[in-house]
Design a protein that fits this description.
300 residues, alpha/beta, Rossmann fold, 2 domains, 6-stranded parallel β-sheet, 4-stranded parallel β-sheet, 14 helices, 10 strands, 14% strand, globular
């Protein structure tokens, strides 16, 4: 009953906004399974489920309920877009009109890290080098905390820098003198922080959630020219020619050691070249072609 009431209230709220904005036949994008009841009720020309994560594996949700709601959503939308190949392989079993479109990036924004006049933020600049940096959501389901502790304790001469929202207590990490938490930073400042990192890391845990993920920060790091060391995951593996991949703590440690000494300008350029065409504009163009195709079908 509560779920049904929430769906009714959400539908009415969106209908009101559509009326106020004078939209006609809007294109409906739904990003989470809890929007399962919306398709067909808003006068939309097309309904699209844009799936970027395996929501059923998130902490604090009832997995089976989310899976049921997502299936209902997949059965009711005309198109599904996924950001990872693993998600695509799962969703196309239910909706044959499923397409794989990886995340894009703001290439111009993150390439500012190459600008010699861009200043490294003061709170990062005062931390000793080499700086091993990460930004993103800091939570156990995403990050391998034991790996972070292993790296910091094994290498007191490295500075491990963490930026982002906390989802878990990291006091045990901060007890190590070379672990630095700088809090949440504005998106506009991320290129400057990237410039101050010597190595960027994606120390993800391996679980169903991360196996289905396509970390946007990977492309952002590369667009900034940074050497990247990452957990070996399907979507990251596609960049194995410009990224150090690691399957365990020792491999990760060895890769960071190698990356620290990889201060070669042409390699920074090569990393940038690997993602320069993966802009949001290019992704939008691909998405537009898919939408136009299905709009044409529905009108025909």
């Amino acid at each position: 009953p509560i779920r049904a009431l929430n769906s009714i209230l959400l539908t009415l709220s969106i209908k009101s906004a559509i009326s106020e904005l004078r939209f006609r036949s809007p294109i409906l994008f739904i990003f989470i399974p809890t929007g399962w009841a919306l398709p067909g009720k808003l006068g939309e020309s097309i309904a699209i489920y844009y799936c970027v994560d395996d929501y059923s594996s998130f902490t604090g949700v009832h997995s089976q309920t989310i899976k049921k709601l997502e299936r209902k959503l997949l059965e009711s939308v005309q198109v599904c877009i996924t950001s990872s190949l693993k998600l695509y392989e799962d969703k196309i079993k239910v909706n044959p009109n499923t397409f794989y479109i990886p995340h894009g990036i703001d290439v111009d924004h993150f390439s500012k890290a190459f600008d010699p006049d861009l200043k490294v933020p003061e709170d990062l600049d005062r931390i000793p080098k080499p700086r091993i940096g990460f930004y993103g959501f800091i939570e156990r389901r995403w990050l391998d905390f034991s790996l972070l502790e292993y790296l910091a304790s094994r290498h007191p001469d490295w500075s491990l820098v963490l930026i982002g929202k906390l989802g878990d207590d990291i006091s045990h990490l901060l007890r190590l003198p070379n672990v630095h938490y700088l809090g949440v930073k504005p998106y506009q400042e991320l290129p400057a922080y990237n410039k101050g990192f010597d190595v960027a890391i994606i120390p993800f845990a391996v679980n169903e959630m991360t196996l289905n993920s396509n970390p946007l920060k990977l492309r952002e790091y590369l667009a900034s020219g940074l050497p990247v060391v990452a957990t070996d995951l399907p979507e990251i593996r596609k960049f194995s020619d410009v990224v150090y991949l690691a399957r365990n703590h020792k491999e990760f440690e060895a890769a960071v050691e190698a990356a620290i000494y990889e201060d070669i300008p042409y390699l920074s350029k090569r990393r940038f070249e690997a993602v320069k065409d993966e802009s949001w504009e290019n992704r939008f163009e691909l998405l537009s072609q898919i939408v136009e195709r299905y709009l044409g079908c529905s009108e025909g």
